[in-house]
Design a protein that fits this description.
276 residues, alpha+beta, Metallo-beta-lactamase, Chain A, six-stranded mixed β-sheet, globular
């Protein structure tokens, strides 16, 4: 059942001990959009859940929420702001932010929090000491089409002439920038969507962001609203979920309003969730 208001969206943190890795969710805020259901308009409320992965001597923040979104998006998506991401990280023992900010893609609700507004005029990097990484295909496409309110161009300006780290996933070292962090480029949602799997010594967590944004995408279905190529996205989704279910991974849902995390299993009737 969908929540009836933003106050019903689960924003409590997830904390998974995977062994030598730890995965914690952050509160990236709440967004809502209008949809027609049975000839009437309803508001669908969704969470935004960046994920912090920590291991021996390193920290990786996966996405950063919507941040200082423009007025049009604030109104259209009914944005409910969280406590600033940098303050949440400071409370987790990271006052200087993460070592790496890994952007799965450049839609505003995932990459907007990369920036903050200083002196009510200029956008600067929220985590100036963190390396920013993403796939070059995503960066190039976003530069060309202005997606996410020109997110790539704004990040580029804040980087002041420097480039982010472009992940070449054909290189094994870039596929695993830190021990236990596995990254895969998947087709369908955008040109450069990344899916992350954090594999610890006794458990693993799949962080699929918008490939599997909520539980309803565990059932094979096309998403003709959000995915650039719905057929390719469906194929990617089924492949990633099947492999993850066979391993018994936890899955962290970026947008699910009610279930932040669960575990995948494979049964005769398909991929299912069980409580963790």
């Amino acid at each position: 059942m969908l929540p009836k208001g933003p106050e019903a969206v689960v924003r409590d943190p997830v904390d998974l001990d995977l062994g030598d890795l730890r995965v914690r969710s952050l509160d990236g805020g709440v967004l809502g959009f209008t949809a027609k259901v049975a000839h009437r308009e309803i508001v669908i409320w969704l969470a935004a859940r960046p994920a912090l992965v920590e291991g021996p001597g390193f920290s990786v923040l996966i996405d950063a929420g919507f941040g200082p979104a423009d007025p049009m998006r604030r109104e259209k998506f009914r944005l409910q702001d969280p406590e600033p991401i940098d303050e949440q990280l400071a409370a987790m023992g990271l006052p200087d932010g993460p070592d790496l900010l890994l952007l799965t893609h450049l839609h505003f609700d995932h990459a907007g929090g990369t920036l903050r507004v200083r002196d009510e005029a200029r956008e600067v990097l929220r985590f100036p000491k963190a390396q920013i990484a993403l796939h070059r295909a995503e960066w190039d496409a976003a530069m060309a089409d202005g997606r996410g309110s020109h997110q790539a161009a704004r990040i580029s300006k804040a980087l002041d002439g420097r480039e982010p780290r472009f992940l070449d996933l054909a290189q094994s070292a870039d596929n695993q920038p830190f021990p236990g962090i596995h990254i895969e480029l998947v087709e369908g949602h955008t040109e450069g969507l990344l899916v992350i799997r954090a594999e610890g010594s006794h458990a693993a967590c799949l962080i699929p962001t918008d490939l599997v944004p909520t539980r309803r995408f565990l059932v094979p279905r096309l998403d003709k609203i959000a995915d650039q190529d719905p057929a390719k996205a469906l194929e990617s989704r089924q492949r990633v979920l099947q492999a993850s279910a066979e391993r018994g991974d936890h899955i962290l849902f970026y947008h699910d309003p009610a279930v932040p995390v669960a575990q995948l299993v494979t049964t005769d009737s398909g991929t299912q969730l069980v409580s963790r």
